[in-house]
Amino acid sequence: MAAQQNKLAYITGSSKGIGKALVEVLLEKGFQVIGLSRSNEIDHHNFQHAEIDLSNIKAVAAYSFEKQASQVILVNNAGLVGDINPVGAVDNQKITEVMNVNTIAPQILCNNFLKRFQNEKGEFHILNISSGAGKSPISSWATYCASKAALDLFSETISSELEWSQLTNWHIHSCAPGVVDTAMQSQIRTASEAEFNRVQYFKDLKLNNELYSPEFVANKLLQVIENPQNFPETLISVRDF
Ligand SMILES: NC(=O)c1ccc[n+]([C@@H]2O[C@H](COP(=O)([O-])OP(=O)(O)OC[C@H]3O[C@@H](n4cnc5c(N)ncnc54)[C@H](OP(=O)(O)O)[C@@H]3O)[C@@H](O)[C@H]2O)c1
Prior knowledge:
This protein has about 240 residues and is of the alpha/beta class. Helices cover about 40% and strands about 15% of the residues. β4 (about 70-75), α3 and β5 (about 125-130) form a beta-alpha-beta unit. NADP nicotinamide-adenine-dinucleotide phosphate (NAP) binds near residues 14 and 184.
């Protein structure tokens, strides 16, 4: 039991979707979990909720990783697709919010996580939740695509730096989870054809039961968390393993 308490996960976006499913899987595996989000639905003796708005960059920078363990992971999972519209018709406030939550907050949390633990003994892992949308353009998702492309390259750069510093007890991945049955997909399906030319494709995925469940994705992410050395590439996709 004592050994189990030595596994600690900080997970953003723990209140819903993929993040909530991952919290539940990790709690079952004996992790202590700290969930960062605005709301919370999880009540478990090994779970602690840190209420935070990740679009508030001052609050993100002030967050401190107080708890330590022999295995510590940071999962930057919180994200939003934003205003589904072509550039020229997008709400400017949403551009800022998407970039803050999807890109700036993860960068600051990675920076502070490394500052806090890079001289400590133990096993450390950063798992950023990216998207296939960070690899090729999807009309009406420009900011979302850009936010995830930035997260991927940021992660690859950290990977180079870990190699340079010979921090062999550290791992980093940026993982695309596939198309997952969450509130984000519900929002995508509410777009009109005028707002989003591929909306029918996403409606069809749902109709044909082709979405991954959050639980399926959480169990895939668990494989990466349990055996990071089996995933030598920084950029990975749930579709591939
Ligand atoms: N679903 C998909 O098909 C899909 C595909 C590719 C990539 N992804 C990525 O997977 C990740 C999780 O997505 P999901 O589908 O599980 O989304 P979701 O069900 O909509 O959940 C989003 C999570 O992010 C948190 N969040 C959003 N804005 C926040 C803010 N300002 N401050 C703090 N937390 C915030 C939410 O918490 P609160 O509302 O409680 O704050 C919630 O827990 C995202 O990074 C997304 O880009 C999803």
